[in-house]
Every structure is written in C-alpha cells, then in structure tokens.
Amino acid sequence: MLHIILCLTISLLFSSPSKATVQDFCVADLTAPDTPAGYHCKDPKKVTADDFVYSGLAAPGNTTNIISAAVTPAFVSQFAALNGLGLSAARLDLAPGGVIPLHTHPGANEILLVTHGRLTVGFISSANVPYVKSLKKGDIAVFPQGLLHFQLNDHKTHAQSFVFFNSPYPGLQLLDFALFANDLASILVEKTTFLDEATVKKLKGVLGGTN
Questions:
Q1: Which of 11, 36, 165, 166 lies most in the core, judged by the most C-beta atoms within 10 Å?
Q2: Residue 110 marked ligand-binding
Q3: Does 103 count as an annotated binding residue?
Q4: Where does Mn(2+) bind (predicted)?
C-alpha cells in the first residue's frame, strides 16, 4: 500500500499539463510600450547573453551641478533583463560637499554599499526619529520604503556607492524639489512650511520654481 502511495505522490509532483511551461525570465521589449504589469517580453529566440549584462554603471556620473552629485540608474528602461524580476540598481557619485537631498522612494526599500570614500547617511522614521551614521568603504546601510533619507559627502575626497532596490520602479520624490522647483503658489509654501517669504522666493529662484 505504501509503495502505491509513493508512486502516486511522485507522479503528481513531476507531472504537469502539457501546456504548462516555466518562464525563466522576461527580457523587456523596450520598443513596445510600458504597462502597469511591466514591458512585454522580448522574443526568447532573440535573447542573448548580452541582455543579462549591463555596463552603464562603470563610468562616474557628472557631479558638476547644484548638488555636486550624480545618480546613474540601472532600471528596467536601461537594463531590460530586470523586467519582472523586482530589482533595480543605481550608482551614486558625490564630489566633496555633494549631497543627495532628502528624498523618498515610495515603491521600494533601498540598500546602499559604499565602494569609495566616506558618506554620512540617514533616514527619518515616521515617528520623526532620525537615524544617522558615517559610512566607510565596504559599509552598507538600508533605507526603509517610503521614508525620507539622504546621502552626504562631508569629506574632502570623491565618494562612490551603489544602491539596490527591491522593485524595478522604486519611484523618487526629492523634498526640496517638490517644495521649491514647481509652480505651487509661494504663499501656500510659506503657510505649509512656516518659512518666510524671502526664504521661499530665494529657494524657488535657486531650484527653478515659479509663482
């Protein structure tokens, strides 16, 4: 009797409907439109080993800008093999004094690995508790999904790190740019941030906001 039960169990485990197949990957067809469910899959017959390798993070980003920092993404639109895998990455380059200002990723948790120099990083919990730490080469830090966080190079040498997300679409909202780089009426910004008119106008002037 036991022999019969074992045979039936093995048969059920290894048998499957004739049309059932395992899809190992879905390399994005970037010529097709993106959809809420992701990109359509590239024809598997046209997929090569090159599709699973991306070299776009090898070169440093241009840090000659207002924040003295650069973010180089490796999202699905750059690295098509990430489609459907729930992953993405980016490279951060920060010149001395460079900063990735307070921002959130509403769609993903983030883990950061420092590969050169030092960074001061931190996040603020929903209870308004700050968690700040100085990192050196080889250190990693995690930033929970949706919480405001930052990266700052407060040293005299270039800093480099790589960040990884558990989503192909982590999303991004920079707090300073959300407040001062748009056409939201200055009076509303003043009332909702408790900043005076001169400060709001100055920051809008720096970041390109109007109204």
A1: 165
A2: yes
A3: yes
A4: 103, 105, 110, 149
Q: Is residue 71 included in any domain, yes or no?
A: yes
One domain, residues 136 and 196: no
On whether both 127 and 192 belong to a single domain, the answer is no
60-113 confidence digits (pLDDT tens): 999 999 999 999 999 999 999 999 899 999 999 999 999 999 999 999 999 999
Instruction: Tell me, yes or no, whether 145 and 76 share the same domain.
Output: yes
My answer on whether 152 and 83 are in the same domain is yes
105 is in an annotated binding site: yes
Whether the Cβ atoms of residue 90 and residue 100 lie closer than 8 Å to each other: no
In a domain, 164, yes or no: yes
